[in-house]
Amino acid sequence: MLVGTQALGAAGGVLIARFVAPGRSRRLVIIGGGLVVGLGIGGILVFDAFVPLAISATLVGLGGIVASSSGLALLADATAAHARSSRFGQQIALGTMAAFTASVLAGALAAPVASLLGARESDPLTLRALVGLGGVVGAISVVPVILIRDVPVPTATTARASHLLLRFAPIEIVFGFGAGSFIPFTNLFFADRFHLSYGPIGLALGTIAVAGSLGALLHGRVVASRLGPVRGTAAVEFSSLPFALAAILSGDVIFAVAFLALRALLMYGAQPTWSSYTLSSFRPAERAAVNATLALTWSIGAAISSAMSGAIRGALGPEGFSVNMIVLVACYALGALLVLLLFRGHEPAGDTPVAPAWPAPAD
User: Fold this and answer.
1) Distance, CA of 177 to CA of 181 (rounded, Å)
2) What gap in Å lies between CA 77 and CA 288, rounded to an integer?
3) What element of type H or E holds 34?
4) CA nearest 350: which of 66, 25, 84?
């Protein structure tokens, strides 16, 4: 249910992103989105009843979409088209390394924080304290955002027809449905299937995040440079699927972590290339709204499948994770196939200048 409220908040983020112009205003919108996320996190820390918690989750979804969509659009504006894939890879690598650090720290801090509060590691009070610490760290990110310089962007670039967005949207909803069936519950998978405590779970999630960082850095330089963005994206997505199945079938936690890390290496590798390819297909003025719309589409698929996967595990117990992973594999295979079918031969032209309708007057 809370995943669904985040998707509802993301819908509001799409409406806001449509009015965000390139350049200076994006910094203010990123900060504003961060403030809304902070309000949502504050509500999660304070409230116990479902309704205010749902509203808080909606604020997290709203602010997150606004900040991330404007941030990614700003990064695209500030990067030349030929270097965009590598730059996005660096951004994702930094994000996943931060996720690694957060996972390890959260696992390591769970016991001392619980002891300090006089609670158990699994108590809501302990979890809220850890979330609150994360919120404090996240608030510090406003400093580098303030220091970002204005990014001048051309306003006269090739317009893209609305049907192009409709070609990207089915891919996002399929990938979202697949990811939502398992990825948000990876920590529960390790807890329920292998009975790990918070510390080892944090280490496992951190290992997977580091592998994703390496994939994000390598894909644009190694795979996409040889196969192109479309075939390069589809190739690693298909290649990741056997590792996903091997992870869920493994009876040993070390092998499960290793297989999921290899899957992350491939799947995260495709993400910067695909994001660059997507945003390069639209004009600078359209990118924030396009990114928010596609993020919402992804979130809708993830919200639906998350609810379904919870019901499946409730009926089957820990073995339900196997069904969840099979759903993920089927969706990612379909998504990779759609990438090949819908974008074969498509060349991004969002940065291409528009020729004037009439010759310029002679001096």
Assistant:
1) 6
2) 10
3) helix 24-46
4) 84
What is the secondary structure of 313-363 as a DSSP string? HHHHGGGHHHHHHHHHHHHHHHHHHHHHHHHTT----TTPBPPPSSPPPP-
How many angstroms from the chain centroid is the CA of residue 285? 22
pLDDT digits (tens, 9 = 90+) for 192-223: 889 888 778 888 988 898 888 888 888 767 77
Rounded Cα gap, residues 338 and 279, in angstroms: 18
What pTM value is reported for the model? 0.77
Average pLDDT, the chain: 80
Query: Distance between CA atoms of 207 and 36, rounded to whole angstroms?
Result: 30
Alpha helix ranges (H) inside 47-83:
50-77
Residues in the chain: 363
**How large is the average pLDDT for residues 182-187?**
89
Is residue 346's pLDDT more than 90? no
Q: How confident is the model at residue 247 (pLDDT cuts 50, 70, 90)?
A: very high
d(CA 19, CA 115): 47
Cα Rg of the chain (Å, integer): 21
Which two tokens mark 181? Answer: 């069936």
* CB-based contacts of 121, cutoff 8 Å, min separation 6: 110, 111, 114, 197, 198
Residues 174 and 301: beta-carbon distance below 8 Å: yes
Joined tokens for residue 307:
């609810």
In terms of Cα–Cα distance, which of 258, 276, 265 is closest to 213?
Answer: 265
92 touches 212 (CB < 8 A): yes
Helix (H) or strand (E) holding 248: helix 229-249
pLDDT tens per residue across span 103-162: 677 777 878 888 888 888 777 778 778 877 777 777 787 777 777 776 666 655 555 556
